[in-house]
Every structure is written in C-alpha cells, then in structure tokens.
Amino acid sequence: MKLFRNKILLLPAFVFLALPFYGFMTAIVQSLGNEEPLSHYWDLLDSDRFLASIAFSIRTAGIATILSIAIGLLLIRSFYKILVQLSPRLRVWIPMLFPHFVWGYMVILLLGESGIFSQIAVVSGWMESQADFPIWTRDRYGIGIIITYVWKEVPLVILLLLPVYSSIRPEYYALVDTLGGNGWNRFTTVELPHLLPVLVESFLIIFSFSLTAYEVPALIGTTFPEMISVLGYEWFYGSSWDDRPLAFASMVSISIFLLILTIIGYTFLNRTRLKAMRGGK
Amino acid sequence: MNQTTLEIKNMTKNYKSETVLNELSFQLQQGEILSIVGPSGSGKTTLLRVLAGLEEPTNGSIFMYGEEITKQKANKRDISLVFQQPLLFPHMTVMENIVYGAKISKKYKKEKTDALLTAIGMGKYQDHFPSEISGGQQQRTALARAMATEPEVILFDEPFSSLDPSLRQDLRYWVRNFLVKQKTTAIFVTHDMEEAMIMGDKIAVFTEGQFQQIGKAKTLQESPANLLVASFMGGNLILSEEEYISLQEITLSPPTDRKADRIYEATLLHVTYQHARPIAHLHIHSLDEKVSLPLQHEDELQENVTIYIPDSEVRRFHEEGR
C-alpha cells in the first residue's frame, strides 16, 4: 500500500495510537479478571445500577446529540450566508473556547433552582418563590446535562457544516426550481446528500463524547441514574476493590458499542451512492 | 399558422443603477428555436433567468400562450433551463436523474423516460453515476432531464461551453435535431456566432441590454442593422458608423475589373491557416481596425500592405432591419 511505503513518517502516529491501544488492551485484561472469563460482564448484565445507568446515558447522550445536530443544522441553514463572514462566525464559536466544566458551571449559575433565571422569575413576578422554578440541574431526566452539551456542541456542528454549505453550488437550487421542485426538494436533493457524511461523523463524534465524558455529568448530574462515566469512576475509585473490574468491563463494553456504531456509520457512508458523491464508485 | 408560445413585452431588468435588460420585446412561435448571441457579460444569462422565473423583471410582462406568467414562480412555470454545466445530481444514476425531472414536475411515465433515455443514446449507461460518464454524455442527460418535465419552452445557457471543440460540434447537431424532432420551442444562448447559426431558426444579436437585430443568419450577414451586428457577425470591415464592406470585396492589389476608390495602409500582424488557406491578420492604421483576410497566394504577404476598396461595394447599415 502506497501509504505505508514511507513507514518512518507514520511512526509518530503509531506511537501516539499505541498509548490508547495499550490502555484499551489493559482494560480488557483487567475486565476479564482471574476467575471465570467474562464473569464481570455477566455481573454487569445482572446489575440494575449498570443497566439503569447505560439506558440513561444512551438516552441523554442521544437526545443531546440529536438536538445539537438539529439546532446546528437549522442555524446554519438559516444563517450560513452571514456566518461565512469572520465576525459573526467567531461570535457563534465563543462557547467552543470554554472547557465543558466551565460551561456546566455556567448552566448551574443560570438555570439552577437558585440561579439567575429563577431570581429573575421571582423578581419579575412570574413565580412566587425560587422553589417554583423547574429542576433543570442535577435532575433525574438529565436536562442540565443535555442543555450543557447542546449549548457546547451546536457551535461545533456549525463549524463542521459551514464548509459543506459553502461548497454547495447555488445553481443546483435554481435547477431544482426550474424542474418544478419546492423547498423540501431543494433540501433532500441538493443539501442532504452533501450533508450526510458530515452529519454521520458529527453524530459519532458528539455522541461518543457526551456518552463517555465525565466532568459535566459529575458536576450537573444526579446520583441515580448516573451517567456511565460517573458510575465507572465510582467503581474504579470506590472503597471496594472488587468493583474495579466492573469499571473496566463497563468501559470496554462502551468502547465496543461505539466501535460497532462507528462501523455501521462508515458502512453507510461507503454505500455506492454516497461514494459517487465523492466522484468514485 | 404556428401559435405564439412565448411573448415578452417591454421587459427591463435593473441592478441598482445598471440596466441589464432594456425594454426587450419579442415573440417565439411554437417549435421555433431562437439563438441569442452576444458578448460575455451582455446580460444573456440574466434574460434566461428572468424568463425561467429565477429572477423578477424590474418592468415588463411575460406571456405564455396569452396568459401572463410574469409573477409566477420558477417551479410553477412550464419552462426548463439547461445550464452551462450539466449539474447532474452526483448521487443519482443517469436514469434516476432523468426520472427525477419527470417525477418532481408530476409528469412521470416510465415509457416516456425510457424513450428519452433511448433518444439521448444513454440506454447502456442508465445505471452509471455522473462521475462515470463523459462531459458530453452528462450534458445529454441534463437535456433529457429538462425534457422529462415536458416544458413548453426550454432555455439553454451556453450548454456546450465547458466541452472540448470536437464534442461541442457533434452535440450541437444532435441537440438541434433532437429539438426539431420533439417540436420543442427553445431559446439558445451563446457567445459563439457559429453555434448560434447552427442552433437557431433565427438569431438575435444581443448587446447593451437590447436586441440589435433579429433575423435569419443570411439577413444578419448581408444586411446588418448597425456596426455592432456587423462586427459581431464578422466578415465585414467597419468603415464608419454608417458604412461597412464585406471582406470578400477587399483586395490586396489594385482590382483589374473596377476602380478602387479607397486605399488604406495596413500592417501584417500574423498569418494563420484555416481550411488549408492562409489568413492574413491586418491592422488598418487610419481606421484602427483589425481584419482577417483570406489570401489567394502566400507570396502576397509583406510586412506593410495596401488594401483596395471599391466604392461600389461599400454598404450602409439597415437600421430598419432591427
């Protein structure tokens, strides 16, 4: 393969990839334990705490990802002509400059029961007391986590989709119009085929991150159900050493799940029709 | 007598202070093909976009079969546009591209799209994606897709400009025959006079936002309305704003059979060959005009030449021909 002819050039990349690979392999070994193989995985399936956590995590990360992509897509569709200019584009990307932890803290300050919004609601007379303000942080539905991720990831979606919209030739819209098409036809025929690869990749990136990242759910999530990353951390650093293999088993399971999801995503993108978009078959 | 398919009355299009289309009026009969020829940037594409409904005219009206369609949106008009580039949808096969045109305009019949596919000679490639076929095949597919919407009028915006010359030549005749066979009313925009003559029943010379003259190629060649038409047609030497002479009547030596009343000095710029004949490209100093004269003998060539013009062959522009 041409890529491997200059093996020396790939060495830094291999060294870099070797570290997470080593970590992953170690995690697999640790998750298997010394007893019956896969016993910790069976334990996971018997654990109500794990099953509740995984369901909550997939649901929360899924909603946050879909909302981020939908809102990002809507914003870029409506404003991409403005966003190609530097100044508006930089303003949209401001949330990307802050760490997730900071953004989560800001959501607590704004939307917590004693936060700024609840104070405004009481002062303006909308609510009698701050206790009437809905629980949006450390709530059992993960609303605070979802709001934090959506707020943080929408600019990322815009960043990823902007080059796609800039590359669509406007003549295609005129073509659909002259063939008798409407706005929906413009979107499905002209935009969607260009967007699909980026949407699939954006979904994989945002979903993988929000499913497994620790800081936001640790800061703004509740104790039950907790996100899988929080549960894994507790199992790893908990008082009982017996739980540590469960932490490895849960993280390995998530990695395999994400790997399968990625393979499905890229298999979809490798369909003949989408390859033809890129000029090949 | 043929019915009037498309009628344009006093159409004007302004962009800020610039007038791109200036009080245009013309008619197209059913099955007629009109070539519009003009230099780049003269507003030809704007004219097509206004006719297709992609842009609104500043003033004036458009009628189709007597019904006003000026305010009608592009997707409601029975007018298709074939663009400079084929603009096939890259994720659809040849057949899907054609069927898309028919389905989107709610005029899909399998027999019809099959017939179109056969007519453009793409049956063998129906399952190919645009990236797998040549530029000419792509443009033929784009034409079939536009035809599949069964438009009353089809507009062509320099559809061959991105093709190489030999392919362009073949496709010109193919499209012309196709349109004639389908009895389709069409407007064909180009900046190439030869292409305009091949494609159109009539030719409209379009510059400065106006039709300078509309007529058959022979009329435009023999009786140009003004110097813009004469210079665009080529084959003439413009002597003044009122006079011109056909290049055929100019000689590089004193004529033996008649009197040469006007004599001009010129410099030989270059020699090229066309149809196996040498062509001298000359600059006439006093007129500040460049002309290309076919030569009988290469030995006529010198750096400085004298050209002879008989007064009897000098013609005046026919403004009434507009």
From TrEMBL, chain A:
Q: Please state what the protein is called.
A: Putative spermidine/putrescine transport system permease protein
Q: Which Pfam families match?
A: BPD_transp_1 (PF00528)
Indicate how the chain sits in the lipid bilayer: Multi-pass membrane protein
Q: Which domain of life is it from?
A: Bacteria
Stretches that traverse the bilayer? 50-76, 97-121, 141-162, 195-214, 246-269
Family classification: Belongs to the binding-protein-dependent transport system permease family.
Residue limits of the ABC transmembrane type-1 domain?
Answer: 50-265
Protein's GO biological process: transmembrane transport
UniProtKB/TrEMBL annotation, chain B:
Q: What class of enzyme is it?
A: translocase
**Mind telling me which PROSITE patterns this protein's record contains?**
ABC_TRANSPORTER_2
Presence of keyword Transport: yes
Reactions it catalyzes: a quaternary ammonium(out) + ATP + H2O = a quaternary ammonium(in) + ADP + phosphate + H(+)
What GO molecular function annotation could you give as one example from this UniProt entry? ABC-type quaternary ammonium compound transporting activity
Key words of the record:
ATP-binding, Cell membrane, Ion transport, Iron, Iron transport, Membrane, Nucleotide-binding, Transport
ABC transporter domain: from which residue to which, for each copy? 6-233
**EC number, as in UniProt:** 7.6.2.9
Gene Ontology CC: one annotated term: membrane
What the entry lists under Gene3D superfamilies is as follows: P-loop containing nucleotide triphosphate hydrolases
| Cited CDD domains | ABC_Carb_Solutes_like
What InterPro entries is this protein classified in? AAA+_ATPase, ABC_SmlMolc_Importer, ABC_transporter-like_ATP-bd, ABC_transpr_FbpC, P-loop_NTPase
Q: Which domain of life is it from?
A: Bacteria
Q: What interactions and quaternary structure are annotated?
A: The complex is composed of two ATP-binding proteins (OpuCA), two transmembrane proteins (OpuCB and OpuCD) and a solute-binding protein (OpuCC).
PANTHER family per record: SPERMIDINE/PUTRESCINE IMPORT ATP-BINDING PROTEIN POTA, SPERMIDINE_PUTRESCINE IMPORT ATP-BINDING PROTEIN POTA
Record's protein name: Carnitine transport ATP-binding protein OpuCA
